[in-house]
Design goal:
The protein is of the alpha/beta class. It contains 12 helices and 12 strands. The model has no long low-confidence stretch (mean pLDDT 90).
């Protein structure tokens, strides 16, 4: 059996800020095969972006406690020292951030920043780094790529900056790409262009991708599998078709019901009541219970484990059958 590109087991991330403690991730298990796209779906505050930053070793070490295991392309991410982490970031795994204007350094040109990453990770000279930067800008279909090499981030539109961010992330040919809501700040037309471009480049380069989003439509468009997160845990995962056709956790059903689509004209949108839980303490029962219309006494007895719904499809609900039939 081929070893997974990404293997995460019982990942827990705790933040301490003064007297306050936040249990941001509470026992995440996930895996990703080479060339597969996993959509990580959930509301703001569910732990999606924190999980990605743990995979990239970007969380502030002085106030973050990470436990569990993270293996990416054979690298023990939790145990590696900072020197190894610098080689790992960009070389093995890279990230597309939600807002490229904040990710790029405003005082250096786009070409300089892409070339610097290539020089650092591939041990080539500046001319070779600049040539790779030009190649990548052309590959992500930025108009007049040679001229854009010498453009500063503020001189480009939002869509062009996001394409430049993709070029930077892929410049060193990483094995794993992490995409943290990369199309949220873009208008609908540009969003579709970026999604299609990402999917095309992923297939062309054979990368594994973890794509974070709160938009079910985006997750379906780009993913092979979906993992739904709530209160720092994965509550359902499976192939896109299985999860969409047979959503088996009440939270997944709520996300689907609150998604706007063409057949809803004239119908009232069904929103999920309430708000996500306060994670000052780790959940000791089903965190979704206060918002769930199928809540029962068994939901308060402990944190539900992921259980099989069908081959390759699991969900963490004590009323799997009843909820699915309701």
């Amino acid at each position: 059996m081929t070893e997974a590109l990404v293997s995460v087991r019982d990942l827990r991330v705790l933040f301490r800020t003064g007297e306050r403690t936040v249990h941001a991730v509470n026992g995440v298990d996930l895996s990703l095969a080479q060339g597969e796209v996993l959509g990580l779906l959930g509301e703001s505050g569910s732990g999606k972006s924190v999980t990605l930053r743990a995979l990239l070793r970007l969380l502030p070490p002085k106030r973050t406690t990470i436990s569990g295991t993270i293996s990416v392309a054979g690298n023990d991410v939790v145990a590696m020292d900072e020197a190894a982490a610098r080689d790992y970031r960009g070389g093995v795994v890279s990230m597309i951030f939600q807002e490229p204007m904040l990710a790029f350094d405003p005082v250096f040109t786009i070409g300089e920043q892409i070339a610097e990453a290539v020089v650092r990770h591939e041990n080539v000279d500046r001319a070779a780094g600049r040539a790779r930067a030009l190649e990548m800008l052309d590959r992500v279909r930025i108009p007049s790529p040679k001229r854009r090499l010498d453009a500063y981030p503020h001189e480009m539109s939002g869509g062009m900056r996001q394409r430049a961010m993709i070029a930077l992330a892929l410049a060193c040919k990483p094995k794993l790409l992490l995409a943290d809501e990369p199309t949220t700040a873009l208008d609908a037309t540009v969003q579709i262009q970026i999604l299609l471009l990402l999917r095309e480049l992923q297939r062309e380069m054979g990368m594994g991708v973890i794509f974070v989003t709160h938009d079910m439509g985006v997750a379906v468009e780009v993913s092979d599998r979906i993992a739904v997160m709530y209160a720092g845990r994965i509550v359902e995962s499976g192939a896109v078709r299985d999860v969409i056709r047979n959503p088996s956790h009440p939270y997944t059903r709520g996300l689907l019901s609150s998604t706007v689509h063409g057949s809803m004209r004239g119908k009232r949108l069904e929103a999920i009541p309430g708000a996500p839980p306060n994670l000052a303490t780790a959940p000791t029962d089903c965190a979704f219970a206060p918002r769930c219309k199928w809540v029962a006494d068994a939901c308060r007895a402990g944190v539900p484990d992921l259980a099989p719904v069908a081959p390759g499809h699991v969900a963490a609900c004590v009323r799997l059958g009843a909820a699915a039939r309701a």
